[in-house]
Design a protein that fits this description.
Largest sheet: none
Distance between the termini: 108 Å
Oligomer: single chain
Order of helices and strands: HHHHHHHHHHHHHHHHHHH
Shape: flat
Number of strands: 0
Structural class: mainly alpha
Strand content: under 5%
Radius of gyration: 39 Å
Helix content: 55-70%
């Protein structure tokens, strides 16, 4: 095909799409081999070949077949004029170059690629967009990056993504069918050009690695800042408690060393002695107003008060240490999510008898949503539609919550019936006594 028209450049050297074509092809997978016939029709429209969409649609031409078309096939099988066939071949060459030049993919190209329904990874498109994953960075991803940074936790999805990336790498190393067809006529690179190309690729790879390391450093700094804030709050609380403790100890020492207050006359009355002692105490015992004698308070005497004060301070100190220990030992969001996931899976396995050895199956969830009354659930149509829109853990967690609500309502009904029975028996017993 390149022998017929050699004016097509590489994906990185020329712009292959005008503004109108870009808007029409927005969201299309750059990997044309995964296109459906409707995607081929959309591509033809974006390239200004709308007049021939019906021919390709009637012959059920998908992306894989599109890439294998040649001039003879277009003319003899699809009955296209020779000039139109050459124009179509030129556009196919352009798409092939874009397909095999993966390192030149933009962020939107990667989002369109990951959102392909055949791959089943569309739910992770937002994560790829958040991390600004381009084609060059996509080729550098490994298993650790996929698990830790992109949060692809499901084994099946993770394995699919690893295999698809491996396919892209093989395709890039081969240079694609276009490169194979042009290998005989391509001009060999000089040693200086080859060295410059290798240095450019190495620089791009090192830049992507540096960006990944910077992101990890920022995450670590954020965690360190949160830990410092928690430690500072604990220190402030500990300082306040320590000041209160020192102040109370100082007051207690002053009271113990202070001499008794002298009375106005030589013989102090019982009332004066008691009143003077009460004025010196923070804790005031109860008095018998007639005899002016101290009566035993529910809280105890002054010695009990000192012991209680010291005990309260010790309890505060103990609670403060427990608070600091609990703040540092709180489970992460990941651990909480794993606990919820395990509780859901155990319920489906024990209560519903589902096979959850490989996780919750989507077929079981869909069967439940089709006939919820079979499982004792009362779901409105709006609820069923909302649950169907969810995917993965969010979906079967919502289903599990519906079972929990059902169990709570049943328990409330049983308690109400039991109370009615108990109140009926009680009223019957009263009537018999009367």
């Amino acid at each position: 095909r390149m022998a017929d028209h050699s004016g097509t450049g590489s994906y990185g050297e020329h712009s292959f799409e005008s503004a109108g074509a870009s808007s029409k092809m927005a969201g299309m997978n750059p990997d044309a081999s995964k296109w459906e016939p409707k995607d081929v029709s959309k591509w033809l429209e974006s390239r200004g070949l709308s007049a021939h969409v019906k021919v390709f649609k009637d012959n059920d031409v998908n992306g894989n077949l599109l890439l294998r078309l040649d001039k003879d096939t277009l003319v003899q099988e699809l009955h296209l004029p020779e000039t139109v066939a050459l124009e179509v071949l030129d556009e196919i060459n352009v798409q092939e170059n874009k397909m095999f030049q993966v390192e030149q993919w933009t962020e939107e190209d990667v989002i369109s690629w990951i959102s392909d329904p055949k791959m089943g990874l569309a739910e992770h498109a937002a994560t790829f967009r958040y991390h600004n994953v381009t084609g060059s960075l996509l080729l550098e991803l490994n298993k650790t990056d996929i698990i830790e940074d992109l949060k692809v936790d499901k084994f099946g999805q993770r394995q699919t993504l690893i295999e698809e990336i491996a396919t892209l790498r093989k395709r890039l190393s081969r240079g694609g069918p276009t490169a194979a067809r042009n290998s005989s006529s391509a001009r060999p690179l000089s040693s200086a050009d080859e060295l410059a190309m290798l240095e450019k690729k190495k620089a791009e790879r090192l830049k992507s690695e540096l960006d990944a390391l910077k992101r990890k450093v920022n995450h670590a700094r954020d965690a360190e800042s949160r830990a410092k804030v928690l430690a500072r709050q604990a220190e402030v609380k500990a300082g306040a408690v320590e000041q209160q403790l020192q102040s109370l100890e100082t007051k207690l020492k002053q009271r113990r060393s202070a001499p008794p207050q002298p009375t106005a006359s030589g013989g102090a009355t019982k009332k004066g002695v008691v009143a003077g002692w009460i004025d010196q105490c923070t804790f005031k015992p109860q008095l018998n107003k007639k005899s002016m004698e101290m009566t035993k308070n529910k809280a105890g005497d002054s010695q009990d008060f000192v012991a209680r004060t010291m005990g309260d301070l010790k309890n505060r100190d103990r609670k403060l240490k427990e608070l600091i220990r609990n703040q540092t030992a709180q489970p992460s969001d990941k651990e909480k999510e794993d606990q919820k996931r395990k509780k859901c899976i155990d319920y489906f396995k024990i209560e519903l008898g589902w096979d959850t050895s490989a996780g919750v199956k989507q077929d079981d969830i869909e069967a439940l949503l089709e006939d919820p009354k079979r499982y004792g659930l009362e779901l409105k149509d709006e609820q069923r539609r909302a649950i169907k829109k969810l995917r993965g853990f969010d979906q079967y967690l919502t289903v599990y919550d519906q079972f929990c609500i059902k169990g709570f309502v049943e328990r409330q009904k049983q308690d109400l019936e039991q109370r009615k029975i108990s109140s009926g028996k009680h009223s019957d017993a009263k009537k018999q006594e009367m």
